[in-house]
Amino acid sequence: MTHYRSALRAEAKAILKANALFAxxxxxxxxxxxxxxxxxxxxxxxxxxxxxxxxxxxFRTDTNLVVALSIKDDAASIEDALDDHSETIExxxxxxxxxxxxxxxxxxxxTEIKTGPEAKQIIGSVMMLFEVTGFIQDV
Length: 139
Known about the structure:
Radius of gyration: 16 Å
Number of strands: 5
Shape: elongated
Strand content: over 45%
Distance between the termini: 11 Å
Largest sheet: 5 strands, mixed
Strand order of the largest sheet: 1-2-3-5-4
Oligomer: single chain
Helix content: 25-40%
């Protein structure tokens, strides 16, 4: 039986891979070092979760799902490009995870954008933290 966090990550990856931006980028581990040779690249992880017991064998889970995307662009437009990509990620994951999984809700909790020079190139990253609420039965 597949663990529900594994299934959640797999579904998020499948949703993103169906988009041209992600299909053409390298998928990496969330802890991967990003440099000019590795971009564009992206990752999906579930680094933490809160669980509330509803009764003896039913639980509410609030799983943190993190999506990160790194790209190269010029200094004048990289933040705008990352904003556009963050909007795409938000739309894809909120609609897709609600439709394709049994989760109760998907909320975007935080978005971080970082930019900086790397070997005379501008690399920018957007990291998005979603809270995915679901209900599970412990067997």
